[in-house]
Amino acid sequence: MSTVRHDEGANGHETVGETPPTQEVPREVRRVAIAVIVGLVAPILDTTIVTIALDALSRDLHATVSTVQWVSTGYLLALAVAVPLAGWAATRFGSRAAWTGGLVLFLAGSVMCAASWNIDSLIAFRVIQGFGAGLIMPLMTSILVAASGGVALGRLVAMVSLPTALGPILGPVVGGIILNWLDWRWLFLVNVPLCIAALILARRIPADRSSAAPLDILGLLLLAPGLAALLLGLSNAHNGIGQMDVIVPVAAGVVLTAAFTWHALRRNGVALVNVGELRRRSVSVSSLGLCFFGIASFGAMFLMPLYFQQIRGDTVLQAALVLIPQGVGALATRSLAGRFTDTIGARWVAVTGFAVVAAATLPFALAGDHTNTVWLMVVLLVRGFGLGTLLSPLMSAGFIGLPGSARHDVSMLNRTFQQVGGSFGTALLAVVLTAGMGAGTGFHDAFWWAAGLAAVGAAASLLLPDGRAAV
């Protein structure tokens, strides 16, 4: 079975092995999971909550839409830069201290965003927000593995992945509701009580040992700008993949990340992120699956609000409300996904989830401006069922048979692949959408691509461990 625990292997190193699926999540571990959930809500919600407010920000701050787009882009780039540092910070200062530091930084950035006086200050403060979020998000799984010893990891991941699964879906919904009654500053002020509650609950996270881990400065100088350049190029792809503002940063990002990979492999596991962990099949396939999850969640969520507003003529609030069933579906299946992951293994849970997402995306490829709204809401509910099943098997599979010392590295790799997948999916679907606009087939083509990519994710998930053997 795929439920895992920490064992002492023959070499004396702590590893993650198998446990009977009947074990329940201990009460103290549930308390840690609740603290992690509360801490994740605001940073993940903020990845998409601003996307629906771009028009309001452009109008109120007297800036062009292309400039306002940097409110989202700057956040995501800063998040990507901070992700590789999270593992080092957790090793150097301890997971609880790194988690708390990220929350404080995110809270400060949120308050400053609400106080912004022009578009430049808002973008700068969003970068601070994003850096704090980048320290928080990758530590989620490693904190759980350390606190639980791997017991019922599938169910634990299902619990704490709730914000990760619902954030991209509900971000535009929450943003639309806030903007309907309040101004854009409340998009950031809503984070304040959430962050304060998360800081209070952070005391539940075990204070693990810190060590004098040296910072891999060369690795940081290669990987951080490499990821930022890659994501920047992908975010510009909506103007066409042949543009210099796409080619140059993507090429630079590929070169820098390749150089980091070479550097990390030469350092035999003491680099900023130990990419050698990708040699484990469970880790590499888990990371690949999370890349496709990023495409399925962030990529498609780029399309859907636009479809309802541009093709069907819905207002921002109407479009936000129509998307609610997808979040309800994701919420409904997450617990079952965790339990099935613990009992039958990650492989078939993930394959089923991706297959449902692919099937429930196809109706949008065939829909028009007069397609029944209730029917589309039912389709979104089913699509949410699929999305809700994915994170638990994909994230927990990467920790089967893993040495305890490697949990930070695998958490960083998982988060990076998910982030790149989201950016790649958004960029690709934006290019397909733009290319088909002249012929009037943009949305149809883009949704066909989205369904096809989810199907590829299902095929890739066949390579996941079946839960009967450690990797």
Describe the protein.
There is one protein chain. The chain is mostly helical and 471 residues long. The chain has a single domain, classed as MFS general substrate transporter like domains (Growth Hormone, Chain: A, Up-down Bundle). 72% of the residues lie in helices and 2% in strands. The chain has 21 helices and 2 strands. It has helices spanning 27-45, 54-60, 65-68, 70-93, 95-114, 119-136, 139-148, 153-160, 162-181, 186-189, 191-201, 217-235, 244-266, 281-311, 316-322, 324-344, 346-366, 373-388, 391-397, 407-437, 442-461, and strands at 4-8, 14-18. It has a two-stranded antiparallel ribbon with strand order 1-2. A hairpin with a 5-residue loop joins strand 1 (4-8) and strand 2. Helix 1 runs antiparallel to helix 7 (139-148), helix 8 packs antiparallel against helix 16 and helix 14 packs parallel to helix 20 (407-437). It is globular and about 60 Å long. The two termini are 13 Å apart. Residues 1-22 have low confidence and may be disordered.
The strands making up the biggest β-sheet line up spatially as 1-2
The CATH topology is given as Growth Hormone, Chain: A
Instruction: Give the helices and strands as they follow along the chain.
Output: EEHHHHHHHHHHHHHHHHHHHHH
**Beginning-to-end CA distance, first to last residue:** 13 Å
Task: Work out the count of structural domains.
Answer: 1
Mean pLDDT: 81
Give the fraction of residues assigned to helices: over 70%
CATH architecture: Up-down Bundle
Strand content: under 5%
Can you tell me the CATH class?
Mainly Alpha
The assigned structural class equals mainly alpha
What is the CA-atom radius of gyration, in angstroms?
A: 21 Å
Give start-end ranges of low-pLDDT stretches.
Answer: 1-22
**Judging from the principal axes of the Cα atoms, what is the shape?**
globular
